[in-house]
Design brief:
6-blade_b-propeller_TolB-like; 5-stranded antiparallel sheet; 4-stranded antiparallel sheet; 47% strand; signal; inositol hexakisphosphate 3-phosphatase activity; 27 strands; globular; Phytase; B-propeller_Phytase
C-alpha cells in the first residue's frame, strides 16, 4: 500500500518528465525510464490490467483503477491517453481481465474490479466498460472483515472463469475467497467455491496474479513473501511455494507475469519502497523454490499494481509491454525489450 507522506521526501531524488497531456510526473532518477507515461486520473491510481484487442493488437487497451470514493475504472490507449471510463465506483482497488465470459449465451471479454466501500466486486464488458452485474456482487458475506482489495481472474481449461478475491484483513487459511462467475441469467453472478490462503497476520494481502496455463495463483503476503497455490478449486488448498522472503525493503506488492511461451517467462513483483521489481523465473528453481534472477530499478514511485504481456502490440511495443502504477495518479508503460535487457545482463 502506498505511503503518500513519502512523496515529498522522494521528490529531491527524482527527475521529472511530462506525463501524457497533463502536469509533471515524478520519476526515479536511477531507474529505467518508461516508454509512455499516462495521463493523470483524478484521484489515485492503484492497479492496471492489459486487454488485448483480438482484431488488432495495436489497438489494445490498459484498464486502470482510480481509487477513491468518487473513483472509476479508466481506459488508456497505448499512447497513454485516457479514452474512456466506467461509471462512478466507490474506491475501486484492483482490476483483472478475462476473455470469453459467457453472458446469456454470448461470449464477452470482461474486467472485474473490487469496489472496496460497497464490499462488492463489479463486472464490466470490454472494451465498452458497460456494467453487466446488475449493480454489483457482494463478497465476503457474513465476515467481520470484508473490504475487498485484490482480485485475479482464473480461466480454467473448460472455459469456467473464477474470481479470486483478497481483502484488507482476514484469517489465515481462508483469507482469499474464490468465486465462480456465471452469466446464464443475463447478468454476471458469483458463487463461493473455495476459501483458502495462509496469512502471516503482519500486513495485508492485496496483490494477486493467476497463471492460467500453469493453473496456479500467486499472492503477496506483504512484508513476508509470495505464496503459490493451485488456482483450480478442485485441486486442494496446499501451499505449493513460499518465496521472495528476503531482499525486499518492506512491502511485496503488484505481481505481473510475462510469458515468453506457454510454459516459460518471468514473475515480476513490486519491491514497493525500493521502487524496483524483483524478477523470478516463471518455472521456479530445480528444488521447487523461486530464486531471485535480478532486481530491476524502475522509474515508478511506490508501485502498488502491475501487469505484463508478451503479445506484439506494434509500434513501441513489438515484444509486448510491462505496465506499472506509480504515485502521481499515473501508470508507466515500459517497452518489454528494456526490461528484457536488464534481465539478460544479470544472467551473463
Amino acid at each position: 500500500m502506498k505511503r503518500f507522506t513519502r512523496i515529498g521526501c522522494l521528490i529531491g531524488s527524482a527527475v521529472f518528465i511530462a506525463s501524457c497531456g497533463s502536469g509533471l510526473a515524478p520519476l526515479r532518477a536511477d531507474g529505467i525510464k518508461p516508454t509512455v507515461v499516462t495521463q493523470k486520473t483524478p484521484h489515485d491510481t492503484d492497479d492496471p490490467a492489459i486487454w488485448i484487442n483480438p482484431s488488432d493488437a495495436s489497438k489494445s487497451l490498459v484498464i486502470g483503477t482510480d481509487k477513491d470514493t468518487d473513483g472509476a475504472l479508466y481506459v488508456f490507449d497505448l499512447s497513454g491517453k485516457i479514452v474512456g471510463k466506467s461509471e462512478t465506483l466507490q474506491r475501486p482497488n484492483n482490476v483483472d481481465i478475462a476473455y470469453g465470459f459467457v453472458l446469456n449465451g454470448k461470449k464477452v471479454d470482461i474486467a472485474v474490479t473490487t469496489e472496496r466501500e460497497t464490499n462488492e466486486i463489479r463486472v464490466f464488458s470490454l472494451p465498452d466498460l458497460k456494467p453487466i452485474d446488475n449493480g454489483g456482487i457482494p463478497v465476503f458475506e457474513g465476515e467481520p472483515e470484508r473490504g475487498p482489495m485484490g482480485i485475479a481472474l482464473y480461466t480454467k481449461n473448460d472455459g469456467t472463469i473464477y474470481a479470486i478475491v483478497g481483502r484488507k484483513s482476514g484469517p489465515s487459511g481462508s483469507y482469499l475467497w474464490q468465486y465462480e462467475l456465471d452469466g446464464k441469467s443475463g447478468s454476471a453472478t458469483a458463487n463461493v467455491v473455495r476459501k483458502f490462503g495462509k496469512y502471516s497476520g503482519l500486513k495485508e494481502i492485496e496483490a494477486i496474479a493467476v497463471d492460467n496455463e500453469k493453473n496456479v495463483v500467486y499472492y503477496c503476503d506483504e512484508t513476508v513473501g509470495i505464496r503459490k497455490y493451485s488456482a483450480d478449486p478442485t485441486s486442494g488448498n496446499e501451499e505449493l511455494a513460499f518465496f521472495g522472503q528476503t531482499g525486499f525493503k518492506s512491502d511485496h506488492e503488484g505481481i505481473a507475469i510475462y510469458k515468453t511461451n506457454a510454459s516459460d517467462g518471468y514473475i515480476l513483483v513490486s519491491n514497493q519502497q525500493a521502487n524496483s521489481f524483483m524478477v523470478f523465473d516463471r518455472n521456479g528453481g530445480p528444488n521447487g523454490d523461486y530464486p531471485l534472477i535480478t532486481e530491476v530499478p524502475t522509474s515508478t514511485i511506490e508501485c502498488d499494481g502491475a501487469d505484463a504481456t508478451s503479445v506484439n502490440l506494434g509500434g513501441q511495443f513489438p515484444k509486448g509491454m510491462f505496465v506499472a502504477m506509480s504515485n502521481g495518479m499515473i501508470f508507466h508503460f515500459y517497452d518489454w525489450r528494456v526490461i528484457e535487457k536488464q534481465i539478460n545482463v544479470s544472467r551473463k
